[in-house]
Amino acid sequence: MSAFTYNNKTYEVDSMDFLADYNHWDENFAEGMAPKLRISHGLTKEHWDVIYFIRNTFKKIGRCPLFYETCVMNGLQLNEIKILFPTGYLRGACKLAGITYKEGYINRDYLSPASENFNILAAEKAYVVDVRGFLLDPDDWNEIFAVYRAYEMKIPGGKLTDKHWQIIRYLRKSYEKTREVPTVYETCDVNQIDIKGLEQLFPDGYHRGAVKIAGLRVR
Q1: What predicted TM-score, i.e. pTM, was given to this entire model?
Q2: CA separation for the pair 100, 14 (Å, rounded)
Q3: What is the pLDDT of residues 91-114, one digit of tens each?
């Protein structure tokens, strides 16, 4: 992380100048960042309409609105938004709104209540997986890996619930003790869930769903 200062106020930003914590955003940040994004004559009403639409939508649904949604809701054509934000939608409009491309990709509801700041956890993190998407080294796992795997699998309801996290954490703790993935029977018994309930939580299956999200694999 690094720092960005404007009008005697300092903000923590990542290596791409995205605001580290969207809660620390204010108009001063957007005004100071604008010249770095090739907006040299100040932010107009049209800029602010887009910026506040992005922020308000993020607060409501937990993710950055899609480019198409922002254009439609603000009555903008491609050439118009390109003129407003010449460095792009994510690297221009969303950056000025204090939303990173990482937060824009994932609904924050996927994270467990105990999660740290999303950006800090996700920044510059890379995972080595096999061709089927299983994590090669279980010790590299963290919640961000689980979140992205779950997002790709389109977990029902749009988020990881407390029950999902209960099973994920059981799998992790059991593996840490025995260095083996518990059987589906053990997982159901310990977590007091039947096969139907497990299927509803992880429709891709026990191994290809729950175990994969937990960063494990049966060898």
Answers
A1: 0.60
A2: 9
A3: 899 999 998 766 555 545 545 544
